[in-house]
From TrEMBL:
CDD domains: CBS_like. GO terms for biological process: cysteine metabolic process; serine family amino acid metabolic process; sulfur compound biosynthetic process. It comes from the Eukaryota. This is cystathionine beta-synthase.
């Protein structure tokens, strides 16, 4: 995504100010520089697009990495109806990925793009700051390929994610909650320090690595369009790094220019536009979405409307998706569907129209969180939840 002259990197010239070779994985750049993405298929694009057709799987796979992508699209049959909607609602079920989330796609793409360019070599240490799902994906790829893996994650993220990453052999560093991203003690700052201290280490940096949105431009979006035969009226996407939004929205607007792109950002996060929607400093508990900066990987130009999301509505809807649709999703899927339903009503989607909502991760990450009545009750998230019918 960087094509200009930041840090001395000139267009097409990988030499930095000091005359050393520029290595995007070892030369630090802020993760909140404006998006300057030109990765459409123009001849000036600095990026290599890949054809990623929906995989046709052989009976025996060579490794778990061959099971990444190709997730199912599943119709929601109950929740839309009970909300009075007549349009079709489809869930892109990324929680069926082998690592449990859509982030498996970007973990594999970021590592393989860097390997292809010769930046990552055998014996390397891969470092990544993550709210957990990218960490799990990166740890899984490193386990298969034999790289040492270090994940830096804020304290507030669930212990279930830490347990999974440790089982995959990753070393985990936890950072205190609420530290601004540009401070050395933040998860971004600690990852950067480790990269500078550890020889032969590489910081993938999903916040600015173009392979993040490209995985969705070439993969996720193509799969959505294929499942819908290029006929869709709305897509709803939660934002963290903004990589999913950037890649999916760009491809879908190219192919279906009338499709509405709805983006959902938690209260307290600073990604939504216009900026007046955002409330700096407000805490939020849904994991994976929301940031205290706008990541470089996030290109907001294709968004038709932003919604700000509350935790309670998100977790209650995630429980409804499990209970009423039988889909074992995580909290941010509840966020996307709750505010997606609002958007379908606001835009007046009718019978015969179709909305796709992306369900990013799985229930496995949150056994002690929104699945737990005590955890929900202590925070007031159970209030107004529909009572179970008495037996
Ligand atoms: C559970 C969950 N939902 C949504 C997202 C947002 O995806 P993106 O980073 O592509 O914006 C993430 C990102 O980590 C996530 O973990």
């Amino acid at each position: 995504m960087q094509t200009g002259s930041q840090n001395g990197v000139q267009n097409g010239c990988p030499i930095n100010k000091e005359g050393e070779e520029f290595n995007p994985y070892r030369n630090w750049r802020r993760p909140d520089l404006p998006s300057r993405c030109t990765y459409g298929r123009s001849k000036d694009s600095p990026h290599s697009n890949k054809s990623c057709p929906k995989p046709v799987r052989p009976k025996i796979l060579n490794s778990v990495l061959d099971n990444i992508a190709g997730t199912p699209m599943i119709r929601l049959n109950n929740i839309g109806k009970s909300e009075g909607l007549k349009c079709e609602i489809l869930a892109k079920c990324e929680f069926f990925q082998p690592g449990g989330s859509l982030k498996d796609r970007i973990a594999l793409r970021m590592i393989e793009d860097a390997e292809e360019k010769g930046f990552i070599k055998p014996g390397a240490t891969i470092i990544e700051p993550s709210s957990g799902n990218t960490g799990i994906g990166v740890a899984m790829v490193c386990a298969v390929k034999g790289y040492r893996c270090i994940i830096v994650m804020p304290q507030r993220m669930s212990l279930e994610k830490v347990a999974t990453m440790k089982a995959l052999g990753a070393e985990i560093y936890r950072t205190a909650n609420g530290i601004p991203f540009d401070q050395p003690e933040s998860h971004v700052g600690v990852a950067r320090r480790l990269m500078e201290e550890i020889p032969n280490s590489f910081l993938l940096d999903q916040y600015r690595n173009p392979s993040n949105p490209l995985a969705h431009y070439d993969g996720t979006a193509e799969e959505i369009l294929d499942a819908c035969d290029n006929k869709l009226d709305m897509v709803v996407i939660g934002t963290g790094t903004g990589g999913t939004l950037t890649g999916v929205a760009r491809k879908i607007k190219e192919r279906c220019p009338n499709c509405k792109i709805v983006a959902v950002d938690p209260e307290g996060s600073l990604i939504a536009e216009p900026a007046e929607l955002n409330q700096k400093g407000k805490k939020f508990e849904v994991e994976g979405i929301g940031k205290d900066f706008v990541p470089t990987a996030c290109d907001r130009q294709f968004v038709d409307k932003w919604y700000k999301a509350a935790d309670k509505e998100s977790f209650q809807m995630a429980r409804r998706i499990v209970r009423e649709e039988g889909l074992l999703v995580g909290g941010s899927s509840g966020t996307a569907l709750h505010y997606g339903i609002q958007a379908m009503k606001d835009f007046g989607l009718k019978e015969g129209q179709r909305c796709v909502v992306i369900f990013v991760d799985s229930i496995r990450n949150y056994m002690t969180r929104f699945l737990n009545d005590e955890w929900m009750g202590e925070r007031g998230y159970l209030e107004d939840e529909e009572e179970e019918p008495s037996k």
